[in-house]
Write a structure and sequence with these properties.
single chain, 2 domains, six-stranded parallel beta sheet, three-stranded antiparallel beta sheet, 9 helices, binds pantoate
Length: 281
């Protein structure tokens, strides 16, 4: 267990980084840290000499009416959580520190991968993610960054951005962390009532049903249908259930794909996914 240095300004960050030598690993978060985030930090430690964590609820990736204002914020608890796994540095800036000039005039178009699934429901989301990720890569000068497979589309888009813009950083994907009952860990799970949490189990159960169907030779349509039925039986409102290519996120009919789900449990929108191999018709 080691206490991380907590900094909130770019200047403090610069002097803290000056004390560190070797390969720097970065784990970007919006706080409300849970075991899923801690697993990213553990992974980053395998690839770097020092690890820093950003805690920043990024306004540019939220659309009006989304949960930017209510998103859980508790830096003290986050620092304690990071202490449990050990990281060198936490950067927890204000929005003004990250966006000192107000709205960015030069932005990133995250391309076609950002227009499907999450991008259909949240059309401005990935441009905001790419903007803050690119800024944090530049501000920190990290050598390697770890992102969770839970946000599979985000991971694919960040990888694409790094490739397309020749950004000098290595991107590592880390597996989804689940509670014992299968629920994928998410900061937004804190919004769920006890009854809703039970309903939310249908997301991982739907993925399991889809995977099982695929292993018994079901077509892509049947896999999606199986998964959807599990969600509908729990009265969970489906946003999408899709089988997509893991890189482009375009729909596929066969091969190895990401079975991706977004669904509303009460007012809370949750996402989950699993890798599924479909033989095809
Ligand atoms: O995955 C998240 O929590 C956010 O999208 C990220 C990568 C920290 C950017 O704000």
């Amino acid at each position: 267990m080691s206490t991380p240095t907590v900094v909130t300004t770019r200047e403090e960050l610069r002097s803290a980084l000056d004390q560190l030598s070797g390969r720097l690993g970065l784990v970007m978060t919006m706080g409300a840290l849970h075991e899923g985030h801690l697993s990213l930090i553990r992974e980053a430690k395998k690839h770097a000499d020092h690890v820093m964590v950003t805690v920043f609820v990024n306004p540019t990736q939220f659309a009006p009416g989304e949960d930017f204002e209510t998103y859980p914020r508790n830096l003290d608890a986050d620092v304690k959580a990071v202490e449990r796994v050990g990281a060198d540095l936490i950067f927890a800036p204000s929005p003004e520190e990250v966006y000192p000039n107000g709205d960015a005039q030069v932005t990133i178009d995250p391309g076609p991968t950002a227009k499907v699934l999450e991008g259909k429901t949240r059309p401005t989301h990935f441009a905001g993610v790419c903007l803050v990720v690119h800024k944090m890569f530049n501000i920190t000068g990290a050598d390697v960054a770890v992102f969770g497979q839970k946000d599979a589309q985000q991971l694919a888009i960040v990888r694409q951005m790094v490739r397309d813009l020749d950004m000098p950083i290595e991107i590592i994907g880390a597996p989804i962390v689940r509670a014992e009952d299968g629920l994928a860990l998410s900061s937004r799970n804190t919004y769920l009532s006890e009854a809703e949490r039970q309903q939310a189990l249908s997301l991982s159960q739907a993925l399991k049903a889809g995977k099982e169907a695929a292993s018994q030779g079901a077509t892509a349509a049947q896999v999606k249908e199986q998964a959807s039925t599990v969600l509908e039986n729990q009265n969970v409102r489906i946003d999408y259930v899709e089988l997509v290519d893991p890189v482009s996120f375009e729909s596929i009919e066969s091969g190895e794909g990401v079975l991706a789900i977004a669904a509303y449990v009460g007012d809370t929108r949750l996402i989950d996914n699993a890798i599924v191999e479909v033989q095809g018709a």
